[in-house]
Design goal:
Layout: E1 3-8, E2 21-26, E3 31-36, H1 54-70
Antiparallel strand pairs: 1-2, 2-3
């Protein structure tokens, strides 16, 4: 299954609002919420997910998380 479309919910305006969620639709018509993320650490665009499999989309998040952690921003 490949992702044919993706949406990302809006950015939180306050600390108590939910984090953005990536939701994808696959070529078989199935829609799935993949994950939420902290937008002050990593970011995504819907286009990044098009053509990826479920495992590739999740691996994209892991790569971005890892890059952020290794960037030295947090001490």
């Amino acid at each position: 299954m490949k992702i044919v479309s993706a949406t990302i919910t809006g950015m939180p305006q306050t600390i108590v609002q939910p984090m953005p969620v990536v939701t994808t639709t696959f070529d078989n018509g199935e829609t799935r919420k993949l994950f939420a993320y902290y937008p002050d650490e990593i970011s995504f665009t819907a286009d990044e997910f098009i053509g990826l499999t479920l495992s590739e989309a999740r691996a994209l998040k892991v790569r971005k998380d890892k890059a952020w952690l290794q960037s030295g921003i947090i001490k």
